[in-house]
Amino acid sequence: MKNSKQAAKRMFLHNRFVTKTLSRFWRWLVQKAPEIKELSTNDARLAYLVTRIEREKIKKSVVVAPLFSLQLIHSITRPTALEKVAERALVVAEHKEALLGQGVITREFLGQYVPSLTWIKVIRDGDSCIAFEGNGRILTFQQVFQLSDNIKVEVELFEFDPVNQENLLAQVTKLRQSYFS
Which residue has the higher pLDDT, 11 or 142? Predict the structure, then answer.
């Protein structure tokens, strides 16, 4: 009896995870609808990696990272994405002095002024972090602020066991090379 309850609970949790993942993917897809005709195999590889990162994490925490230590997992070249970056940059520029006074771009600021379906999500790569969610927002901030501003950003850091970390970083590095070459 105990095993069947545990199995039912595992099935429930798995189904809830799958439902949340599919729901998140569907919202992302609807948001990206104008860009669908421009999608490439790199985008499919990115979607696979994001799903794998979400699934294989052993820990997730909110940390503060220097803005210019955040690297993009993919380039931003599509006209619709570049327009969104430009629009967001205008909004962020209006709040630049206040943000410099705080020294940190908080999740509260992100939610209020630069909203998105997800927070900025990163994995660690040595002294830097690679963003697998929030690349457009990072590019926006990097256009508004200078390295000398020493501004930081609240991000969600995903951590893995060492074997998965090494494997994921190898795949992320390969994907980044295909985007930035």
Answer: 142
Contact partners, residue 84, CB within 8 Å, separation at least 6? 136
Cα→Cα distances 116→31, 32, 64, Å:
10, 12, 19
CA distance 169 to 180: 16
pTM: 0.79
As a whole number of angstroms, the distance between CA 145 and CA 75 comes to: 19
Instruction: Count other C-beta atoms under 10 Å from residue 118's C-beta.
Output: 14
Say what the pLDDT of residue 181 is.
83
At residue 32, the 3 state secondary structure works out as coil
- 3 state DSSP class of 26: helix
